[in-house]
Amino acid sequence: MIYPLAGRTLLSDIEGILGRRNITLSQHRVCGASVLAPIGFKPKASSKCGPGHGLMELLVPDKLYFNRTAACKVHDFMYEQKMSRDASDLLFLYNMNWIVEQKSKRRLANNIGHTVNKIYYFFVHKFGGYFR
């Protein structure tokens, strides 16, 4: 998976940012999906992710086309732990794309899922800091 702005693999960018902070990633099973998360990750019992209320819940749905709740829970954990915002947001994109890859083997579905993920990532990266 290539991050289009950097031209490098997305995962290597994430690991580089987190590695400078001595944070290691490991595989976790969350909400039925396999995702990467920092060691020590513990998902909240709540089913809500992100802002989780009002207008923002409509603008940032966790289940549009593919269920992104697992990626969202990791992202929320990283924000709560005050980990790097760039790494948190990039890992969010990586996990969302990985969920799409796990859930569908059809090219059209994957393309739609990845496009939705990029749009979702853009809004989270631009405006997510306001909810930190």
Q: What's the helical proportion of residues?
A: 40-55%
How would you characterize the largest beta sheet? 2 strands, antiparallel
Structural class: mainly alpha
- How are strands sequenced across the largest beta sheet? 1-2
Uncertain residue ranges: 1-7
So what's the CATH class? Answer: Mainly Alpha
The value of Rg in angstroms is 14 Å
Query: What is the CATH architecture assignment?
Result: Up-down Bundle
Quantity of strands, as a count:
2
Q: What is the global morphology?
A: globular
Annotate the secondary structure layout:
Elements: H1 10-19, E1 25-30, E2 33-38, H2 54-59, H3 69-80, H4 85-103, H5 107-127
Antiparallel strand pairs: 1-2
Helix pairs in contact: 1-4, 3-4, 4-5
